Amino acid sequence: MNGAPxxxxxxxxxxxxxxxxxxxxxxxxVCWFGLTWRVGFFIQDTYxxxxxxxxxxxxxxxxxxxxxxxTFGSQPGLYEYQGRAYGRNYGMLALAVPLVWxxxxxxxxxxxxxxxxxxxxxxxxxxxxxVAEFDxxxxxxxxxxxxxxxxxLFVASVLTATDLPTDRLALVALQLSTVLAAATAGLVLYRxxxxxxxxxxxxxxxxxxxxATPVGFWATxxxxxxxxxxxxxxxxYAFAVSRxxxxxxxxxxxxxxxxxxxxxxxxxAFEALFVVGVLxxxxxxxxxxxxxxxxxxxxxxxxxxxxxxxxxNYAISGNPAQPPRLLPSVGxxxxxxxxxxxxxxxNGTPMPNSTTAEGGATATxxxxxxxxxxxxxxPPSLLDTIRDGTDTVSAFAGRAVVGGLAALTQPDRxxxxxxxxxxxxGVNYGTNNFEAIDLxxxxxxxxxxxxxxxxxxxxxxxxxxxxxTLPPRNPRDWRPVRQTDLxxxxxxxxxxxxxxxxxxxxxxxxxRYLHPVIALGAYGVWRVPAVRAAxxxxxxxxxxxxxxxxxxxxxLLGGVGGLGLAVGEAVQYNALWNLAAAAVCGAAVTGWxxxxxxxxxxxxxxxxxxxxxxxxxxxxxGLVYFRYGSYAFDVVRVLADxxxxx
Length: 646
Fold this sequence. Notes:
The longest helix is centred in the first third of the chain and has 43 residues, at 169-211. The strands form three sheets. A two-stranded antiparallel ribbon has the order 1-6. The protein has a two-stranded antiparallel sheet with strand order 2-3. Strands 4-5 form a two-stranded antiparallel sheet. By secondary structure, it is mainly α. Helix content is 63%, strand content 2%.
């Protein structure tokens, strides 16, 4: 490769990944998520998302065929307007469309299952070559051993491969999009923590996000939460960069934060409203440049980033302020057909015929065309649309905040959301065959037990301020890390409060509505000095984690096989071990914080314990607890056949 193209490629790689460690982390997380990847439907509303993706890949916003379900009524997450069914989370689906096209093009040459195996092996080989470049490894031996392992897994996948129908490729693309988003979230967290505490702490933070938090659980389960995590962490990272730069460089970073926040509107406008609001408030509070020109640029960037959402809403209902979620849901007995002149594409089931509504749109008997102009009335003016949209958003947001603040006064609700699940009174477990498979925040992420030291650290800072050794200053003069902490705390507080009225809820599994909060909590863990001190001996820290993982797998599999547990019992058994690990972690980290008698190595073991048990949960969730669909790589299926099944 010539010098100039190679230099441009290196520059692009540095812009995306930061350095080789970032690339290795990203590749490693993608390969890790693939180990337990199942091509199938775990959450029911995935059917609606997959069918909407099929339509979007064919150039339509409305669902034109039922490739993955027999009826519309069996797909929560579909909404009706003038006789047509629309999905949601279009910003998430739009990112998956190129993956659909790429996989379909590849499947025209190679069988889909072999295509996936080849992609996985290719990423594995790139990972090996990049790891071999580190000074602490022997380049030749590392490449040889790693390549041999990757090729052995590839050959085993080929020899055990079963058929994967080509009509499943849209679902594969949807899952692959969240895999890439989860890996990207880990990469961005690495770069964020590394800015303040060095690459070792950053690498540990990024890795733990993928292997020791629910981000790893939802990586192959295509829900919006994973992509929102990546974007929210990206917002925080761009904000942090902007506080360390001056002039146009700072403005570009600030604009990047608003662009990412604005894109969330196309995925979930409710969450985006609060992310944008918090970002705007903290940005104005801490920014040195508040000139009219700068604010105009940031406002324009936010508007442009929100334009896809506004355009999509307008194309669906004629009202840019009305997302599909605010439309009537498709009923259980609904039947739809393509509009005049349309034909279903692909290999899916075409929609049943129905009557034709006025204007050529199709509708079922009883369906109404009640949208803008649907009854012959004059469409509302732009001013009326903006006013109605503002009123709706204000009322909805106000109810969420008021309900969340009221929930803070309900100890039982908070206990069952953040600490202990079990069988929660008032929660409908019928959807899950009456199995208590849902975890709390601490059960799903016991590493958050390290945050028990925060009150001690906060108390020290307050005492320092009272003694005038730390004089109060204008937030614009704070260090970038303190300003970033303020943004993180504000996002955690607001995103928690607005979702509390809905929690606890069945089928959230790891309190997925608080997914961004958990990811930001992982950032907070690595801001604790004791946790970073645990990395002073890297080999000891890694060894402690591997030993904890081995202990966790042995204990959890022993409980499943020896006690004869059902699914809900096994998950709750795992939850109790996670809570115990969280308690050990919290005690050790707090002990190090208040006393110099607690050694770093003890803290390393205590921090590794919850990380190992969470990784054990992720592995057993994919191999033992929840079985659905088929493994993306059949070699994993062969291995899974030799572990206890529930």
